[in-house]
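[Meeting: bench + compute handoff]

Bench side (C.D.) handed over the final construct sequence. Compute side (W.E.) agreed to return the predicted structure before the next meeting so the bench team could plan truncations. Sequence as handed over:
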Amino acid sequence: MSIPVAYPASRSKEGRRQGEISVASTQRTFRSHSRILLDVVLLGFLFLAMLLPGFMDYENTAEIHRMIEEGRYLEAIVRLRERRRIFDAPAYQVESGKMIANIFSVHLHDYTAAEKELARALRYTEDPEERAELYFLRGMARLEGEDLAGALSLFRELALLFPESDERSKAELMIHYLERRLLPRDREESAADGEPLLVEKEKPAPARKRALEIVKVPEKTRWIRVLLEEDARRIVVSAPGGVAIRHRGSRKIVATSLEPLVIRAHGGKISLTGIETARTLILTPLRGFLSLDGRPYRGAFRIDRSDGGLRVINIVSLEDYLKGVVPEEIPATWNLEALKAQAVAARTYALYEMERRKHYAYHVRDTVDSQVYGGYAEEQRMTNRAVEETRGEILSYGGKPIIAYFHANSGGMTASARYVWGKEFPYLQAKRDPYSEGTPVSHWEVVYQEPQLRHELQGAGYTLGRIEGITLRRRSPSGRYRTVEIHHTLGTLRLTSVEFRRALGAQRFKSNYFRVYRKGNLFVFSGKGFGHGVGMSQWGAGRMARLGKSYREILHFYYEGATLDNMM
């Protein structure tokens, strides 16, 4: 099997008439503009953090940036909205709105939600240049959402309202482009005043699919990029038959080594067994598998010189990647149908991230921030069989891969994504889950003395005095409370239940499905389940399989409305 090591450079379009605008180039420009804007907004947050006391500390801003980098987009949105409720400074309302809008458009492709955030931000600024920028971004969100007439209307409004703005020239370019798209040669004429009607071509309605219809993926290898190391100072790479070394963008082997390679970060480049080389190397095995510090992996390694050291990315086929994921996420001794359900969910999640992060250096991490991936060393016969027997099968909704969230145990009731992360997904709704009841970690209890609880929250960065009481508010349909109010001698601290759980440690405080009562100087938390509760419960899937349910029935139960499809 050949490993892709060359990345084709983009080519310029030849022969285009002067002044002609292509749809692809316009959309690429928007996506590039959006990614740049995201970085600009982050810098704006840092600047505001320095100017406004108590506004938002650097650690919170850095945490949001990490969430986005790790693909935890919904968590980032929740964090921004929670901070927005606390800090009402107009500058923050505008910047947070732009940032949330960019997450929706660039990463989640929800352009309607993006435009709503930008429209909300308009209420908090009277600055003409800032308002013009928000108008332009709203227009681009409508364009990406294929509402061409709506986009044209906003660009025209921008040009009329802000004639001196820097955004006007860009708006006029978009007006020219959209008028060409919306006014074809066989344009319809209005009988009333002779003005041309803006007519978009009707798109055929997508064919309706039966629930959980299976379509096999054609034999086409999809490659996923998995981050194994970040900012390492020294690594050792080896393979039983030796290692081939290439430069990025070239298939030519520049060197081979039968001995283990000691790789270090040296200056701005990579030091390879004492010899300074380029900033990026591609390593492939001449025979067998590559090993990183003694742990074997399928596929190839890409070694980058990062700001903090060495970044190691495993380039591996999606199916081989899953063989190192499924046994890390679910016991390989479980019933085969449960393993197959996990394989489909893991494949779907991976493909979703591959599409959302295709312009990034890596698609996923090898940790719980994405999916735990142990490489070849963790592969098991039964989990490999589960991957092979579901080869290419993914869950989709509306023709796109779903966000196939899963967790350890729902506690008897799954959670809606809307009430956990603030984003609605039709296939991630709250529902009773009898299969998870009575299984391990379906119930738990944690007891804190008041000083201990206060210390834990202070250690997480929150300021509070002696805790006098705790109130749970905003109960969701699944029975989970969304807000935790900690009443203390200095005031009241309000956190989301997700933030509260994170502050106390997700392994000990197993879910946000809990109640609390006070007993003297003790706070007793009695909870259900393990994890966020959204999507498939792994313990529930295990019980369903033992009861004779197929992996298709398991997936249909936990991702109701999704279909098993081919998105390769």
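W.E. noted at the follow-up: The first helix runs from residue 23 to 51. C.D. will use this when planning the next construct.
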